[in-house]
From TrEMBL:
This is Beta-barrel porin 2. It comes from Roseateles saccharophilus. Keywords: Signal. The keyword Signal applies. It is found in: Cell outer membrane. SUPFAM superfamilies: OMPA-like.
Amino acid sequence: MIAMPTKPSHHCRWAALAPLAAALLANQAAQAQTDDTTPFYVGGSLGLAHVSNVYRESTATNNDRVTSVGLLGGIDKKLGRQHLTLDGSVQDNRYSENRDLNNLSYTLKGAVNWQTVGNLSGVLSAKSDRSLADFNIGNGVDPILKKNIEREDEYQALVRLGVATRYTLEAGWSHRRRDFSASEYDRFNFHQNTGSFGIYATPGANVRLGLAARHTRGQNPRYPVGFALDPETLQIVVVSAPNDYTRNDLDFTTKWSTGGRSTLNTRISRSKTHNSLDTRLRDLSGTTGSLGWNWQPTAKLQLNLQYARDTGQESLVQAADLNRVYTSQQLGGSYALTSKLSLSAKGSRNRSTRTNSTGAAVVDALDDFKTYNLGVRWAFSRGISLSCQYDHADRDNSVPQYVYSASSYGCTAQAILY
């Protein structure tokens, strides 16, 4: 596998409660699955939500109602030794009051799992997301009160030598890029390529150990470095310059399964980064890592725990916070009350501290972000379901304008044809 840091999916990002609650609700639509008898699905969804403090302001409250209409579809097909999967969802999101925030969001992802007659196998995958970005991201950027679209693309390739053997060699490559439509977020735009090579051993039936080297090279195309006077308009403008960065990691990973009911994944890395704008972005040299635990004590109850210590860009705690280390915790679970009715709950916390130094681009010393989620899902039939959820977010920060509290609640109805 590509030895990237453990992170949640885009839909459950630890960074913040998404400003568009309807989009969060519509994510349930992307969870549809197929099987060998029905290798495809198509469907639609309708979500209604109430959002408090839409712009994530520290003092003002701007509430709104959001309607989200979605289309979704997918393919899950085995072609001999190869396995093709495609999933996609598109939502048209409409605000009742803040109509300038109306937007079209989508998630598209696909993968091909391939295998030869020997011990050679691999994965080719791609993912693309488009959504409304956080209005109050912090990190030296004033909160904005306008539509800001975030786009992220990711491509990965993995080659594996050794399938049912005790030792496995794996080589991987990935490309990621992210950009924002608002110029205020230029510092968070980036593109990067990562290559990795590792060896993995299975000393026992339920234990897997790995040692991998990982190299990342990327760029922030427009990182702000100062201000200047525009001679034509006579206005003060932001001057930006590209920041080229590299990162080297040595990863030690483990996977331990106990009887199929409990799985523990860990990663400990020695990480080192270097930025070309070293007067504004401090380099990092230290230990990063992650831990993930999934436990199913009964047939109805599932629990999961995740912990990560990494830079914001790699852990997706923030959009592209290169030189700041975050510690992130998430605890979640689900319980099946009946065969049709299930409950879910999740809580997360992301925290970082920084000792201010001369020339640092971000001067706030504390950022503490907490989110909570409660949900219920009723499956009327295999293809028809209703989901409702409540989300709440609290943020504490050394900079008063970054402090806020917000919540949302709503429901989404979904219908799928197999």
